[in-house]
């Protein structure tokens, strides 16, 4: 059985593990203040071309979103996101657990639009309603789609106009930026977003996400919030060493390109068979629409996720590739697709 | 410079890293539901002789305490602890951040006593005050002291009488149970505590703590709370593999014994010099009282923590050993102590 | 200018004020434990025929909802409501501020249906999502509509099946039960709802709502939660005396019938003119659809609320009557409606 | 039985009730934005000589403290108070329920000192501990003592030096300012405090406290927080009318002077008998130390509170007078004191 269930089924990229092995018994400072972690921070700042950004290495995606929104919002302030936003659907109410309402709006291709943002903010007019304060986007989105530069500029302009912050969940950011046709680069992000994180867990690390805080108002006391919400590792260097390697010579983007390329192998096979898609993507997630017979055929050898049953009896499913997907596995799936009923 | 600053300065025990390396590229289930994690759960249950206990592998100490108390308490319910309790002093208000008051009482040798517990509960009589509901203890305590079986039985009896739960923070539990003179075993814990955790971060793991929930009332929906508070790793197997090794053949207790033995090397040197102690311990933390000249002398080659300046001009300091402390380092410190002014 | 803006523009019914005057200088027990408050509790229990219900007199609607949901839910548990539910739209995130996600579903005529409840619960399958635990309904709804006995039975059955509690916001409960065609009585409520409140603020009191907790699991420590959330008045008798009068001889239902009758005067005038309605109601709220010319005409002498601009240029507006609406005011509005363009 | 149990046993001053009666059936704006409420705001600003202060009329003391601290603090920030502070002891964890740690320090005569404030702040040095941000004082204190101008200036200076806000709970502020020897006036408060409230509940109102926010950083969105925490009354004018009367021509200070004078009648009787005091006060609370025989004698005809049993078998008790205490009642108690064994 070969799994295409998600992008967190394997451990870390071998070079990451090597680095952890190499430094394992050297003594170093705790709580993420060690030299290697600080060097990883520098690598992030260099990558995005923003020397004044604050960088914090965090444990995982839900923790990162929870800490960021706890830090950025006052109790009556809300975050706006697409209805499929991870914070809205799959974080067990973590943001509400921190006291904040999530205002969800209909997504377009999995994405928040400036128009939807403006529309929901316009209905929040006085102190009997929450005050929308942060716009949350995932890039790549939960549906594998990618924000274009124009879309991000439109969101940035809307946020500026509305007095809001723009925050990007980048659990799959490298896959997004590495995707074909993406016109956004790391260097664009500090101008477009007030804060965002670069995902490690789904891109070669055992665990860890690199939070980047750009807007000066969002910086103060962020480490207090990390600790306050249980997100500060005593051995912070465990994450630091991983990002140090991932960012050292573009490994993170190499890994994302590989994940995308493996998805492309599968995508091509699906397209060749004329299989329709629930949503069109260029990243490491694919959402083809299969017949029951096709699902039965493929599920003999491959693990994938049922995404959404459709009214006509067919089913949208999800295949996910990753940095760890061997090309032979992608080819095997492509072959099976070619042979499926 | 040799550091005796804390017990989280190094990475993981080599066997732990080996196990992570070995399973690194095999695909497995996420969120801690993989086979190795489930096997680690079984090992915990076997270790404590309690097949019906629930086990959850968590990320770190603050996160573990935060999740447990979030799960165990209603909003008006409070946790009682010694004034030096970690949740009271060094978790940046994480428990209050989850909405609960901490009632702190004067510690005796770093420990909560049944008498102090009864006394504070007695003053909480009606709905204008919080309702004390969980007694929190750290074992070993923040001052390196260890609860005796009698002390734990007295706390258990008090909790039963008062309608309270007893929860143990076991960040240094193995060191406590491995310490000379300790008459408590793992098998005692499920009878004494309603929940507790076995610390990994400070005892050979890169990160991770094994939460054990014994009381049936505290079990429901615990995994929801883990996710809700940002403590669920996508690659939960990262912690599972570590505990699988640590618990496989008694490694965790071997490591704790080593840490304690290294502390004993230093303790003996201090005692031989007639150095007084701020508090007497049998675990991996030492709190000698040094003169300024002694501090100056030792700090040339060794890192240690200033704990508390004393009125007479001397200073209580803290030396911490760990599973990773090479015997030659402990000997080097012992030698320096013998030579200090 | 005669206001039909809402049902909280005037003070208290004269008999209520008289009672407050009469007892004003007698000394009595604080925090709602005085004799008159306890008698008001008894009157509530008699009214609903449920001697074992717990009654708590609270300050206002948001506070009542906030306290109830804080008391009833664990942190990962969510409340389901219609998208127009007051807690979802007009309480400034108070429920989220208490840590709980609100799952909103499309309303039917302002009401939550058993089908919508079942559908959203069905999508919440594991610990990565919140656990739906309370179904919230407002009766009368925010759109002035009333739940029928069949609708409530269907919701009760769904809640039983789904392991959920049914909670009713009764800010306008008397108006609902007094409305023409309503087949639900006070005596039905303890069998149908696990908890609900009987609104005072909008039905003759200066302030105050009577919370009724029926389900034994929801009763413990409710007074702690009232205090914990700032809802316990030192002079609790201020609310007690008001409910004592309102419930003494059916005054609360007399007031609700008056409010409904005044609405009927206006409704009849609108119907006579062939004015369409945004939603059909039988309570003290009316939602006619007016042309701009009609709005301009009526707004010269009457205050009312713009509810929702419609695509065709017309506007749904809201007229609200109350216990305090003089018949001449309702007639004046009816006359103007007859004369409007 | 004549009660000296507390200062909230009676309703409102007759003039307050008259005003409520007079405006009862006039229609007015909701949520505290009516003309009379706004006039009450103006009266507060005039009283304290601070035209730029924001004023918010709130429901009660716990609610006021809860809302203020929710508005003023970020999640990792703490409030420092004397150990006897109301928020620390008798608000059922409301402040912690809003997510904030309370750092309590030993009180001197019921008061927080600048020295104790500096000392506790000095121990909070990094992100592993909460950040002390607000100093909380009650004036009069929970022990009936009053802050002198020098004491408040010292606290102000400490707060300025430490980057903290000074917040005063004024549940009994009028009694404090009206007390013999008090050298602080209303006009001093805006210079000394960043925010404070003037208590109504214990000084002639049915309910209500007037929150004053002076520091510009604490003003934004305060009304959102009132609503978010359930403290906004639909009929806000109910509190507005009361403060309008209490502040119109000095009534609030007249009432406080009366309460203090009645306490003085009792105090003189106790002093004449040589009864010692647990703490010396000049306000409406008295804490004499009685023998069991004296308690038995007095409790036949008078209600008072057992405050604290003393080691020598005697008991500190509390007598509280109020605006509503008839002189004959105070005299009756004084007479009984003269006759007690």
Characterization of the model:
Four copies of one chain form a homotetramer. The first copy, chain A, has 341 residues and is α/β, with parallel strands linked by helices. Chain A has two domains: 2-7 and 252-339, Aspartate Aminotransferase, domain 1; 14-251, Aspartate Aminotransferase, domain 2, CATH 3.40.640. Chain A has 14 helices and 13 strands. Chain A has helices at 14-22, 35-48, 61-72, 86-89, 94-97, 114-122, 149-162, 173-177, 189-192, 222-228, 237-248, 251-272, 292-298, 327-339, and strands at 2-3, 54-58, 77-82, 102-105, 131-138, 165-169, 195-199, 209-213, 277-279, 285-290, 302-303, 305-309, 315-320. In chain A, the strands form three sheets. Chain A has a seven-stranded mixed β-sheet, sandwiched between helices. In chain A, strand 5 (131-138), helix 7 and strand 6 form a beta-alpha-beta unit. Chain A is globular and about 60 Å long. The relative contact order of chain A is 0.17. The mean pLDDT of chain A is 97. Chains A and B meet through strand 1, helix 1, helix 3 and helix 10 of A and strand 1, helix 1, helix 3 and helix 10 of B.
Which secondary structure elements does this structure contain, and how are they paired or packed?
The structure is a homotetramer of 341-residue chains.
Chain A: E1 2-3, H1 14-22, H2 35-48, E2 54-58, H3 61-72, E3 77-82, H4 86-89, H5 94-97, E4 102-105, H6 114-122, E5 131-138, H7 149-162, E6 165-169, H8 173-177, H9 189-192, E7 195-199, E8 209-213, H10 222-228, H11 237-248, H12 251-272, E9 277-279, E10 285-290, H13 292-298, E11 302-303, E12 305-309, E13 315-320, H14 327-339
Parallel strand pairs in A: 1-11, 3-4, 3-5, 5-6, 6-7
Antiparallel strand pairs in A: 2-8, 7-8, 9-10, 10-13, 12-13
